[in-house]
Amino acid sequence: MTPSRLPARGLPLCDYSLCCALGADLESARAQLFAAQSGLRPAPFELPFAAPCGVVDAPLPAPPLHLQAFDTRQARLALAALESLRPRIAQAVQRWGGARVGLVLGSSNAGLDTTERVHAEHLRTGVVRDAYSLRTQHAFSAVLDLICALTGIEGPAQFLSTACSSSGKAFASAQRLCAAGLVDAVLVGGVDALCEMTVRGFRSLGVLAEQPCHPFGAGRSGINIGEGAALFLFERDAESELVLLGCGESADAHHMTAPDPDGQGAELAMREALAVAGLAPAEIDLVNAHGTGTALGDASEAAAIARVFDGGVPVVSTKGYTGHALGAAGALEAALSLLTLEHGLLPESLGASPVDPALPIAVVQRRREGVFKRVLSNSFAFGGSNVSVIFGRVA
Amino acid sequence: MNASMHVRACALWSPEYPDADAWLAGKRSEPPSAAPPAELLPRRVRGRASLLTCMIAEVVARVAREGSADLAKVPLIVGSGYGEMATTAQLLAMMRSDDGALSPARFQASVHNAAAGAISIATANQGFSSCLSAGDGTSAAVLIEAFAWLTVRGGQVIVAAADESLPGFFAERDRFGPLALAMLLDVAQAAGGMGWLGPPVRVAAAAQARASREPGDEMFARNPVAPLLAVLRAVRAGRNATVALPAGSGSWRFEFTPGEGSP
After folding, report:
1. Taking CA atoms, what residue in A is nearest to B250?
2. Which of A330, B165, B201, B240 is most enclosed, with most CB atoms within 10 A?
3. How far, in Å, CA of B148 to CA of B134, rounded?
4. Whether this model's pTM surpasses 0.95
5. Geometric angle at alpha carbon A364, from A360 and A370, rounded to 5°
6. pLDDT tops 60 at residue A350
């Protein structure tokens, strides 16, 4: 494939925000991240096994009264991330017109947490509560409709849902919408609320850790599930130091849940992102790894990173802070990576020490200061879906 | 920017209509089919796959065959309003039974990209695929995503859109029949093919109806991907047409121009 017609200097990022286990806003999360404080806590629902989770424990905003039908935890997480961006989104809508502003989000679970509760009630009572609506409380489109109603966005609006690569792929989709001339500004991101089904599901696959995870660690035993939301407003001609440089997407074509042991699909995604961005591997200062803490996944990704970058680039996993936020992970970790670019601080990979000596990569084990201009962030998923996203600081 | 997307092939499957010809002629299968052949998937995978995954595999294979696309290389965009709801309902039931343990096979098949993953594995395709959802706007969204892909990357792309009936307690509020559609699109300007779909144009007014109101389409009326039937009908009619697909408070308009290979 020939990358073409993408903005040469990258797609300017006007503003971004997040809400996750590290904090309900960017500043809180930044403080916790660089202080190496984990946001993992006991699961907020009853389980017959231990399962630390990346839970957001801050109060979350509810939709306004006239949009109450959309009130779910997923919606509240999205609203928490949306709040600080609303003035800037309003400017974009006013400048370009709502139809020229797009909305591309990623999620794996949609409103499943609400549906779990309604289903349990239905089993007990035989009745589906009146207030429950599949369209406004379960479907992916619910959060699209809510955000469009609140912001005046009327351009292309869609959720990407490719499990854990969902919001990473949202950046790729948004970049194409801009390059194709379909939008002038686009709100991108990801949101997933913690669900009992996903925790039990990963347990059924034998990859759920009963302790805080150890990404790339010698004693790694699996993942912790998390939740959160992160949003990013891009505008075609905005003045910004931060830019989206390129994305690469691929498939393992190997197995529904197990990664290709050689990491060929991951390598394809990273190389394509570099090609789209017009960068050599040596121009990447940091790799934010998918790095969930599973034995196979981390080994596969490490092998791929080592082949692309010759093993020298610093590699960070932030799953030890936030847990694995599934469909929101790509967006959440993009936000954490941008904090590194902006503040010149590389967080330690919490839980990684001691690093597995068999892995041929340089995992960051202590916070480090420096000048970091470009970061490549990986997200990999069920179905062998892979995405790599590159952000840069152009100043 | 490309002026349009070239329609190379299109396909439809539902339990009542085995293909687009039967649908256009109003010839229903009696009794309705339980599932499509889905021979693209290995027998072992097919046996465990949901109806949704089998429907998507079926229409994707058909347009690839009809348009001579290489399934090991062609990009794939899948849209579904609700995704793997039957599998989700099974998992919800497991969660509340006995020890609450889930089937790992069911869990991995519950993700929105289960069909795309199964197809990429079956065809050894390591290239691009994506899965999206936009409620009633899913039909417009897959065409917009395809238009952006073809404009930026060129080549060809398969778009598929499908939703299965809602299972269990989900069906208490919303009922519709299963439906899957697919199109093979490219940017080639060569003669042949079925015609061209112009670029998406946003229209403030809502589309007239969520689904086609043609006779025979009633069973799909509330299926999120039913609006795509109007595109298929225009393509197969081989006449100039304007199709409005709903999305949010407005709609997206696509102009269809028939090609030399139009029926």
Report:
1. A154
2. A330
3. 16
4. yes
5. 125
6. yes
